């Protein structure tokens, strides 16, 4: 049996993802009453105004580097139909080092770092003291060659470290990052394939995704 496992937060008008970035805003361009076609049909047309860093999103290398690969140029092979490896680091504290990462072949996989910090989503607690990957952990990941790295935390970096080593190392190696994931506790390593594809935005650095895993029981 095929199961679809949701790993994304829903996008809701006014929601906070990362302070102090702007929150999403909906503008209705045509409502049902205004769009009647001689009484035969009606449509809702709306715009969603949002920051690229909203909800669960993917960072392209352009997010960190001026000449980096943008969203439109990211290979689909780094975003879709990826075997998953779950790194359960829920008992490891804030700083996630290389010693707690999976000791297995990670090449071409989506490494999903489970911290369970997403349980604080929608509360003030979510915006401070987040779990993060250390520079040493990211260097090990770069050497292992995964297709993508995801985490269910506010940031893959320590937000107090302005040098942002995790973003610098991973995106510098061409490895996209998926932040603000959720529901990683529902996953088992090698038990599904991840899909986390943003729009093909030329010049875009980050954008929300509907991240999910297709699992076979």
The first-level CATH class is given as: Alpha Beta
Count up the helices. 2
Cα end-to-end separation: 5 Å
Give the ordered list of helices and strands.
EEEEEEEEHEHEEEE
Indicate the CATH topology.
Glucose Oxidase, domain 1
| Form type | globular
Mean pLDDT: 97
Compute the number of structural domains: 1
CATH architecture: 3-Layer(bba) Sandwich
**CATH superfamily (homologous) name:** Putative cyclase
**Biggest sheet strand line-up:** 1-13-11-5-7-9-10-4-12
Strand content: 15-25%
Integer-rounded radius of gyration: 18 Å
For the secondary structure, the number of strands is: 13
In helices, the fraction of residues equals: under 10%
Main sheet: strands, sense, barrel = 9 strands, mixed
Keywords:
two-stranded antiparallel ribbon; mainly beta; 9-stranded mixed sheet; 2 helices; globular; Glucose Oxidase, domain 1; 217 residues
Report on the structure:
The chain has 217 residues and is mainly beta. The chain has a single domain, classed as 3-Layer(bba) Sandwich (Glucose Oxidase, domain 1). The chain has 2 helices and 13 strands. The protein has helices spanning 135-144, 165-172, and strands spanning 2-6, 25-30, 45-49, 57-59, 82-88, 95-96, 110-114, 132-133, 148-151, 177-179, 193-195, 206-208, 212-216. A 9-stranded mixed sheet has the order 1-13-11-5-7-9-10-4-12, with helices on one face. It has a two-stranded antiparallel sheet with strand order 2-3. The chain is globular and about 65 Å long. The termini are close together. The mean pLDDT is 97.
């Amino acid at each position: 049996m095929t199961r679809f496992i949701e790993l994304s937060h829903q996008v809701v008008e006014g929601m906070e993802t990362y302070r102090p970035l702007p929150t999403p805003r909906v503008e209705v361009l045509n409502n049902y009453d205004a769009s009647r076609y001689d009484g035969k049909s009606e449509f809702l047309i709306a715009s969603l105004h949002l920051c690229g860093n909203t909800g669960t999103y993917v960072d392209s290398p352009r997010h960190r580097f001026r000449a980096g690969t943008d969203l439109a140029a990211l290979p689909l092979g780094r975003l879709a139909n990826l075997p998953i490896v779950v790194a359960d680091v829920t008992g490891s504290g804030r700083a996630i080092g290389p010693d707690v990462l999976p000791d297995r072949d990670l090449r071409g996989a989506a490494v999903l770092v489970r911290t369970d910090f997403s349980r604080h989503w929608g509360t003030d607690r979510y915006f401070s003291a987040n779990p993060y990957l250390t520079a040493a952990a990211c260097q090990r990941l770069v050497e292992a060659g995964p297709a993508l790295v995801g985490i269910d935390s506010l940031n893959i970096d320590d937000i107090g470290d302005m040098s942002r080593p995790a973003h610098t190392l991973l995106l510098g190696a061409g490895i996209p990052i998926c932040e603000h994931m959720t529901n990683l506790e529902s996953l088992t390593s090698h038990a599904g394939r991840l899909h986390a594809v943003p729009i093909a935005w030329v010049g875009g650095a980050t954008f929300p995704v509907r991240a999910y895993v297709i699992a076979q029981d």
